[in-house]
From TrEMBL:
Lineage: Eukaryota, Metazoa, Chordata, Craniata, Vertebrata
Alphabetical keyword list: Membrane, Transmembrane, Transmembrane helix
Membrane-traversing stretches: 12-33, 80-106, 150-174
GO terms for cellular component: endoplasmic reticulum; membrane
The name this protein goes by in its record: TMM33 protein
Localization, UniProt: Membrane
Organism of provenance: Galbula dea
Membrane topology (UniProt): Multi-pass membrane protein
UniProt record similarity statement: Belongs to the PER33/POM33 family.
GO term, biological process aspect, one: membrane organization
Amino acid sequence: QFLMANKLDTAMWISRLFTVYCSALFVLPLLGLHEAASFYQRALLANALTSALRLHQRLPHFQLSRAFLAQALLEDSCHYLLYSLIFVNSYPVTMSIFPVLLFSLLHAATYTKKVLDARSSNSLPFLRKLLEKLNANQQNILKFIACNEIFLMPATVFMLFSGQGSLLQPFIYYRFLTLRYSSRRNPYCRTLFTELRIVVEHLIMKPSCPVFVRRLCLSSIAFISRLAPTVA
């Protein structure tokens, strides 16, 4: 009754579980490397479906207008719909599947707990403990996802020069990264950029750091800072 009463949430729960399943079989290619590539695409397509359903839930009344598009781009679900479309037809990159896998796992765990509560307050205690441990590490998981989002930017450039990526991919991914940086719901991308800057500046200011390395790092920090969008 609980599942039928919340059909859209249940559909997203099932698609997230399927995303976790496909992502796991890509990361751990138990069925062979050829099958792993197909699971990579399935995971991203399932994530795109989940993101589209979530976006519909957040903005139920579609309008073909600039105002609606601007509002949609503020939603994290729109960001990851774009993310899935960027990588679904690209060369499989293990780093790109981790954000999809971990976000799906976190959201699926939250809804699984609701399902267990609807069934009984004491049902499946072992599974409840696993869900609680996952929830306790949520902040670290979100930081790891943000780290993946950041380092995928140079990875897309490397893929372009190695012949495994398209010319447009780095530019479209840069747009995705600016949306993540400006996210209202998830500040971890901004936080990670700040923390990485502090760590790099601390290391290059040590006397043992060569001058040319210090200048290169300072120039890179200044360049990246200029590319960063303004956050309200």
